[in-house]
Amino acid sequence: MSIKVDNLTKAYGSQLAVDGISFSLLPGEIVGFLGPNGAGKSTTMKILTGYLTPTSGSARVADFDVMSQSLSARRAIGYLPEHNPLYLDMYVKEFLLFSGKLYGIKGDKLKARVDEMVSLCGLEVEKKKKIGQLSKGYRQRVGLAQSFLHDPSVLILDEPTTGLDPNQIQEIRELIRTAGNNKTVLFSTHIMQEVEALCDRVIIINKGKVVNDSTLDNLRQTGHTLEETFRELTR
Ligand SMILES: Nc1ncnc2c1ncn2[C@@H]1O[C@H](COP(=O)(O)OP(=O)(O)OP(=O)(O)O)[C@@H](O)[C@H]1O
């Protein structure tokens, strides 16, 4: 399994944000992670990527336990957090070179990898700008380039297309499809068409619990659209 979550819970004080969820992703699967605002998607992703510790339960990424083998798990993960925090005063290439060094990539290999990511993510024309001067869509590309740099086997992308115009959404989607080829991808979104365009499978959570985990083919056979299913299960 590329991702395996077992009976995971996370409490913030008395609030159970994640309430005993279990799911797994096979290598190469692209899975949409849906749920209404506050359902627990980001919290789950933060646990998978080692930013938060769970209250109970376990999670494994690339067969590494995210708690006891955190470093190995994190090496296998490319993570785009919600709101995509970046160093706005850094130049695009400077930031990617800096990020690559943090991943332990060095010398000519680092330069080649950064150039490859600049090209893959369509950053060629903007690469000499400061990140703070970029549009939201281009900042998103920088965040994605950073998450792909160390060639991780698992991508965890928290709302990668939120706030982008329709053209940018299409381009970022294409990028996820290209870069996600042969990778396991778990991404959250509120855009149903995005899931239909990109995913093999969808996991819907509501109030911290998994309320649906099925392939899109199976969902279609129910005769309901994804949106209808979502609304029915998350009311
Ligand atoms: N640091 C925190 N302290 C206290 N409560 C938190 C914290 N982070 C998240 N929560 C709460 O946990 C619940 C789940 O939040 P989370 O961000 O995981 O939801 P989400 O599904 O990602 O939502 P959205 O779609 O709005 O991004 C929410 O009620 C939220 O207010």
Automatic annotation (TrEMBL):
Keyword ATP-binding (UniProt): yes
The record's section on InterPro entries has: AAA+_ATPase (IPR003593), ABC_transporter-like_ATP-bd (IPR003439), ABC_transporter_ATP-binding (IPR050763), P-loop_NTPase (IPR027417)
> Any idea where the ABC transporter domain is?
3-232
Q: Per its record, what are the GO molecular function terms? A: ATP binding; ATP hydrolysis activity
Q: Which SMART domains match?
A: AAA
- Pfam assignment, any one: ABC_tran
* Family assignment from sequence similarity: Belongs to the ABC transporter superfamily.
Name assigned to this protein: ABC transporter ATP-binding protein YxlF
Please name the source species: Dyadobacter helix
Q: What is the lineage of its organism?
A: Bacteria, Pseudomonadati, Bacteroidota, Cytophagia, Cytophagales
The gene for this chain is yxlF_1
